[in-house]
Amino acid sequence: MPRESSRNRHLVPDLLAPGLDLVFCGTAPSPASFKARAYYANPGNAFWPTLHAVGLTPERLAPQRYPELLTVGLGLTDLNKTEYGSDHELSAHAMDAAALHAKLRRFRPAAIAFTSKHAASLALGVKSPAYGRQAEPLEGAVAFVLASPSGRARSFWTLAPWREAAAFVAARRRQRERAA
User: Fold this and answer.
1) Measured between alpha carbons, how far is residue 83 from residues 34, 77, 155, 161 in Å?
2) Most buried in the list 11, 49, 86, 144, measured by CB within 10 Å?
3) Is the pLDDT of residue 99 over 90?
């Protein structure tokens, strides 16, 4: 059964700005993230250590520091902004791929990275997307499908698609430095 919050339409607010290098998109906050009002806040989630390990952040950030991602050209959103819980607990009608598409058109990030195959499937309209860079962009953004950082998905964990997305961002950062 999905868990909804009547206190706040967006359980954890989007972290978006025009022209970001990469926006991460999950399905919905976990109960721990909802409670902390911070993305990927479950201690067993590998999101924050992975960002640092692949070079996307200069240091390992705590989940509560998520707004700092904007300073390194990264953003965050979810497909479901009104419920929290595991994928199997969420309502199909609350998965809003159309809203994600509108955000991508509005903010024009260079890339979008889905932090699970389920989120990617819903947003891309592909039954079982492969990990890594997708052949087709999504609303002009290069699309990546990443292995879920959730502790529950550890048996499917692979760092390779995270490294691929990080290499894309690193190339953009180098290009900006050369142009400056």
Assistant:
1) 9, 13, 26, 27
2) 144
3) yes
Which range has the worst mean pLDDT, 2-16, 68-82, 118-132, 133-147? 2-16
| pLDDT of the residue at 1 | 47
Ramachandran angles phi, psi of 78, nearest 5°: -135, 155
User: Could you tell me the two tokens for 126?
Assistant: 């592909």
**In the chain, where do the E strands start and end?**
3-4, 22-26, 74-78, 83-84, 111-114, 132-133, 142-145
Average pLDDT over residues 131-145: 98
User: How far lies 135's CA from each of 22, 36, 90, 125, 138, in Å?
Assistant: 17, 36, 28, 13, 10
Tokens describing residue 4: 């909804």
Strands 142-145 and 22-26: unpaired
